[in-house]
Amino acid sequence: MLEIDDVVMKACSKHMRSICGDVLDKRSGDNYQIIVEDCMKSMQTFIKEDRKFDYVFGDLTDIPITATPTGELWDFFHNMLQLSFKILKPSGKFMTHGNGSSSVEVNLIL
Q1: Which one of 20, 23, 30, 55 counts the least CB within 10 Å of its CB?
Q2: Catalytic residues
Q3: Which helix (H) or strand (E) holds 32?
């Protein structure tokens, strides 16, 4: 797991213990590792190392709503998706979610 915000993980570890258990305390185990780092940087490293993953979970809830998908936020969103698909195994799955007004259909050419 890649997470940029250590404060969020510490808060989850403290206040959501019934969900997180102690994984956020240890940050690694036999079948997981939690890395505190910018995911864009990590995914670029994974691409260089030719690492592939079964799943990529994108926490992309700030999808902009516009008839013209342009601008800095759209560029970020597009880059995030491109990197995500490059590190997925051929049979891998990309998963994300949306909420509220960001729950719109998004068609991107990658």
Answers
A1: 30
A2: 59
A3: strand 32-33
The answer to whether the beta carbons of residues 81 and 108 sit under 8 Å apart is yes
Q: Report the relative pairing of strands 53-58 and 35-36 from DSSP bridges.
A: unpaired
The per-residue DSSP string of 47-106 comes to HHTT--EEEEEE--------SS--SHHHHHHHHHHHHHHHSEEEEEEEEE---GGG----
Q: Which residue has the tokens 């990529």?
A: 56
pLDDT at 45 over 90: yes
Is residue 83 predicted with pLDDT exceeding 70?
yes
Which CATH architecture describes the domain 38-110? 3-Layer(aba) Sandwich (3.40)
